Amino acid sequence: MPESTTTTPGPRAELLYCFCRLQMPAVALLAERCSHHLERTFHLFLKKANGAVTWEAYLDHLYPLDWFLASACIEGNRSAWELLFASRAGRSDCLLMDALRSRAARLYPRDEEKQDTAVADFWGHLCVPETPGSVPVMARYDGQRPLVPWLIRVFQNWHISQLRKHPHAQSLPDEDIAMPMPTGGEIEPRWREVFADAARDWLSGIDDDEVLLLGLRIRYRLSQREVAQLLQVHEGTISRRTDHLRDLCVDYLAKQLAAAGWMGDDIFELVRSEMIGLLLDDPRLSVDALARILAKKGKQAPASSH
Description:
Layout: H1 12-23, H2 31-48, H3 55-60, H4 64-74, H5 78-85, H6 96-107, H7 112-124, H8 147-163, H9 189-204, H10 208-219, H11 224-231, H12 235-259, H13 268-281, H14 287-296
C-alpha cells in the first residue's frame, strides 16, 4: 500500500480549519472533528493513489469548502445539510436535488415512483450504509474533486450498475457530456490531477471572446447556428473558431501531459471524462461572468440553458 512521506499535515491544517470556518460561519464543526476528518480523507485518498503521497500534495489539490461541507454532513450538522440541499449543479445552475431528479427521470423514464425512490434512497444513504459493513456514500469522498459533480456521478453510476443487472433495462442516453458514463479502463488519480492543472492553466490564458464561445456552447448548450445568431456573425465563423479553439486546447493538454511523463496513446478519455466538468466549474464560465461579457457586447444572455 502507498505510504505518505509526511506524517502530519502541519500548520496548514489549522489554516484550513480557520479558512473554512470563516467562509462557512454557520457550519460549526469543532476543530478536533475537522482534524479527524482530514486524517480520514487523506488516508482514503492514500489507498487510491499509485505511489507515495505527501500531505502537501493532498492539501494542494483539496477542495477545502466542499471537503469541509461533506465532513460536517457526516457529523450530522444541520446547517451543513441545508447548504448541501441548496448547492447548485454546474451546467444549468439548478439545485442539486433538481439535478438528481432530472437524472432519475432519464434513468427511469415514465416511472415517477421509481424516480422519487431513487433520489430519496440516495439521500438516505449519504451518511447511512446501504448494507451492513458497507461505507456510506459521503464517507467515500476524499475532497480531491468538486463535491456536487461527484455526488451526481456516484448517483448515476450506482443506478446504471443496477439497471445493467436487469436484462430488459433501458440504456441511459449518452447525451450528458458533463457526467459521462464510465468506461472499462480506470485512469490513475495522478493523471486526472495533472490534466486538471493543465486544463486550468489553459483556461486562464484564453481571452473573453474564447471564454464566451465555450460558455455559450457548453454551459448554455447552444448550437453553432444559435451562437452565430446571438453574436450576429456567420455560422462558418463560429465553426472555424470552435475548431481552432479545440485544436489549441488539445495540443496544449497533450504537451503538458507528455512533459509530465504521460505514456497513454492519447488524451481522449481524459478529455471525455474530465474536461466538461472543469470548464463548468471555472468561475470565468459562470452564468454571471458570461452575462458580463455579453453585456460589454450589448447582448443579453440566453433566457435559459438547454
